[in-house]
Structures are given as structure tokens and as C-alpha cells.
Amino acid sequence: MIWNEDAxxxxxxxxxxxxxxLLKKVVKTAYENVPFYREKFDNAGFKVEDLxxxxxxxxxxxxxxxxxxxxxxxxLFAVPEDEIVEIHSTSGTTGTPVVSGYTKGDLxxxxxxxxxxxxxxxxxxxxxxxxxxxxxLFTGGFGIDHGxxxxxxTVIPMSSGNTDxxxxxxxxxxxxxxxxxxxYATYLAExxxxxxxxxxxxxxxxxxxxxxxxxxxxxxxLEEKLGITAHNIYGLTEIMGPGVAAECxxxxxxxxxxxxxxxxxxxxxxEEVLGFGxxxxxxxxxxxxxxxxxxxxxxxxxxxxxxxxxxxxRTTVRMDRVTGRTDDxxxxxxxxxxxxxxxxxxxxxxxxxxxxxxHVTRPxxxxxxxxxxxxxxxxxxxxxxxxxxxxxxxxxxxxNKIGIRVNITLVEPESLPRSEGKAVRVIDERNFD
Amino acid sequence: MAIKQISVFLENKEGRIKKAVETIAxxxxxxxxxxxxxxxxxxxxxxxxxxxxxxxxxxxxxxxLVKENEVIVIGIDDEPNGLNSALELFEKAxxxxxxxxxxxxxxxxxxxxxxxxxxxxxxxxxxxxGNADILTEEDIANL
Lengths: 433, 143
Hints:
The complex is a heterodimer of chains A (433) and B (143).
Chain A lengths: L4 H4 L3 H22 L1 H10 L20 H6 L13 E6 L9 E5 H17 L7 E4 L7 H13 L2 E3 L6 H10 L4 E4 L1 H13 L11 E5 L5 H11 L2 E6 L10 E3 L6 E3 L4 E6 L6 E2 L5 E7 L10 E7 L1 E2 L11 E2 L4 E2 L4 E3 L2 E3 L1 H9 L8 E6 L6 E7 L9 H19 L4 E5 L14 E3 L5
Parallel strand pairs in A: 3-4, 3-5, 5-6, 6-7, 19-22, 20-21
Antiparallel strand pairs in A: 1-2, 7-8, 8-9, 9-15, 10-11, 10-12, 12-13, 13-16, 14-15, 17-18, 19-20
Helix pairs in contact in A: 2-3, 5-6, 8-9, 10-11
Chain B lengths: L2 E9 L4 H11 L4 E8 L3 E8 L2 H10 L3 E12 L5 H11 L4 E8 L6 E7 L2 H10 L3 E2 L2 H5 L2
Antiparallel strand pairs in B: 1-3, 1-4, 2-3, 4-6, 4-7, 5-6
């Protein structure tokens, strides 16, 4: 089902017309109501009237995460504080947290976008959505919640954690859609397996997974183990939360709700705008947000945009699976790679689970990568040479795919930390001082 | 005649062997023989036990990675050249021994050897032709 056919199937021409008029409006509002933007635009010599075509968007200065941090907590609100009805925030694990404020109208739009995402995964007003994203300052739980309510579906607000209870509710309530991070979904699938459940014992039909990077290989495993279609969803605290973009049943790129968010791809170094199909850093602009509109936000997420109409009928621009972040790209022995590439290589080996950890150290001024991989029953051998061969095979596969030599250490199953939120995949202990 | 051996994957860190052995002990299972192969990072604990099903069950429940496979167990004369004469049978048949370990029991004069060879069938055949004393599960239960 397409939740909002008018918006999601609009012709590109009409969409661009709409985007331009919304852009003009939001840029003007930001300039007039937020001192930060006034100063930023003035310093860059950008005038609101300079925006006449979509090409002119490239003249508007970017907003970065640092800008948002400096404005902590409420410095970027474009409306009086009493009009803000909900606040979300990043965890602040990498610095000062970033806060976002939503007006009543913003929450309606968020609900609309999340409802479109749920519909893309096959959800309807009859769906029972087990929402296992964390509820709280994190946008995941509330975003799905707003969408489910907009849709008129039943939301089961599990939040994350308490796995035994998750499984019980899944069975007793016959939830048909599960929403959580892909690493928690993997953990739930493992736990179901361990308790002897088969995919047919539960009623799940679809999963909507996001808030961290994952791979096609992980998707195949989740789809098989849970008997579902697994849909990628995209969102970020700074812009909106889950629902900015999501995958339809084709599962071939995430449809960006481009009547609410204006997407661009730039070269992260030159900051030049790249065309469709080119890989680079995603830049997003809020077209309709009232509480805290963000103009040309540098997401640091690496992806590409596709303009071709999707076989599902939607015309919205699609973004590829995010393959990395400009800031979590690892540079080891001069080779740049993303942790997701390691995951892809690991999961191409039958029997390996997506439970791994990358340790980068620098003894004697040379980078050493050690990858801890959990051994599985399919791969375990009673002979040392069998395990040696397995380690060599994993190292060889990674060398083939990424071009770096790594040390593999097999560890016991379930010995690596499991996460109920975002998984910690990389431990970089290099000291460059 | 194939005897089931249980192998357990153990990370090379303190307390892991103890935890595995303790798990088996608490379930009232007797370990008849064991050996460990190890490198700097991990080891493989190989066991011949009194109750395979129960051993697998309790180890798995405690998150150990467990595998069951077939080995040959033979009785040899507990005297000089005892093991050598058994190995000669394999050598003659050009059979490669993957690993072996031995133990003695107070209930028999013979020494007991657990052997893993790549090609189980031809291993048995060469032992039978050499009239070796191949032990059955019953034999082992009585040790």
C-alpha cells in the first residue's frame, strides 16, 4: 500500500516545483528567526533572494554537527520555546549532544513520514507493530510510535531490552511487524532459535531496521531466520528521526520523503554537489520543519541518490544503503575502508554470524588489525588444522575484498558484547601522539 | 565400533577449562579420557564421556561450542612397542593419523588409545586386518 499517493507518486517536475517553493520559504524563515542562520548567511554573502532555482541551493552554506553542538541546547529553535511540544537528543557519545525540537505540526509530519515507511513494509491499520527501538530522547522509539498512530495500527511499545519479554509478547500478541536496530534484531533471532522457535511459530511478516549500518548479507540472514521481509529505514536526530527515508517491498534503495527533506550528494572534500548515481556525502535540508529547520545538514553518511521511478510506483528519490560515514572510515596501513566492508566479507562465508569486533592497534608504529569472530557450530572442527584453515579462509576473503591483511581470532560464541542499541564494531586503540 | 568423542572450543583465557569441566561434573557425567590441543589463542578440549547426549546438552546450555565426531578406540599392550605396533598397521596402509591420545584404566591391563584418522573406514579395516583390539562403546563403559 502507498500511504500518500499524491506525495509519493508526484511527477519529478511537480516535486521540484514544490521543493523550490518550500526551500524559499524555509530559508527565509530560518534567516528571519534564527540568529545562527542570519550570521551564517551574511558571512557567506548569501542572500535569501539568491535562491531562484534548485541549482542555487549550492550557494547556501552548510550546517554541520559542530554548529548544532555550539547551539546546544535550544539555540537553533525557529519558534518560541512554548510552541515546542517534544524534544529529542543524540546520546552525546562523541561530544556535546545535539538537540532537536518539534512543534505540533512537526510531529504530524514525522508521523506522516513514519507511516509512509511502515506502509512500505506492508503495514496497514490492522498491523500490530512491536516497537523495540528505545523510547526516550533517542528518536527511534517515538518516531515509529508516531507513525504507527498516524496509520491507526496497533503499537506495542516494547522499547529495547528485556529479550525474554520481547519474545513472549511476540508470541502472545502475534506482532506482525518488528522495529529495532538490525543488531538487536540479530540478537532476537538468535534468542528465538535458542529457545527452539521456528519462523512459522511467530507471526512476524516484516521488520523495519535502522539507526545503524548493516549489510545485504545481514538482511538475508534476518529474513531467513525470522521469516520476514527486512526493510531498511533511515533517519537522524538532527533532521527528523526514522522515516526520512525507507525501503519499499523492492528493498532496492530507500525512498526519501523528498516533499519534506531535500537531498543532495556532495564530495566531502571539495563540497561540490554531485549528480544522481554518484557516491558521496548525503546533505539534507528540512523543507517543512517549523521547530528547528536545518538547512543543508552534512550528515557524514556515505551513499548515492537514484532518480529512476521505482517498480513499486513511487517516484520519490531513493538513496542507496549507507555504506559508511565520512568520520568512521578507517584508514589502516594507508587503505581506507568501512567496518561494513569487513562485515560483508565475513558474511560471505557460510556459517559465520554477524558477531565480530575490529581491533586496531599500533605496536611499533605499524597498524595491526585483529578481527575477533565468533565461531559457530557449522564451522567448529575437532582438529587444529580445521580451525587454522578457517582463520586463513576468513583472512583471505577479507584481503581479497578490501586489500588489507588482518589477523583473525576465533572466539567463543556469544562472547562478544551484544547491544540493545547500536553495536560497537570498532575498537581503535591506536595512539598517534 | 566408532566411538563418539565430544570436542569443545575454548578460548585461551583463565577459567575456561575449569568452567567446562565443572559444567560436566555438575551434571554427574564421568570423563573417561581427555586431551587438549591448543595454540596461543584457543584450544580444543576433546573428551570421551559416560553420557554424550547429556554432555552436549549441558555444555550448549552454558554457551560452549560443542561438536561430536567419531574416533577409533583401541586397546594396546601396556609395554614397550605397544603403541608402535598399532601405528605400524596405519603406516602399512598409508593412513595419516590426525591426532591421538592415550590413557590407562585400573580395570584392564591394556592401555587405551583414542585415534582420529581422516578416513575412518580404511582405518578400521587396517586395524581389523592386523587383529587389533578395537573397543566398543560397551567396552569403554566397563572401563
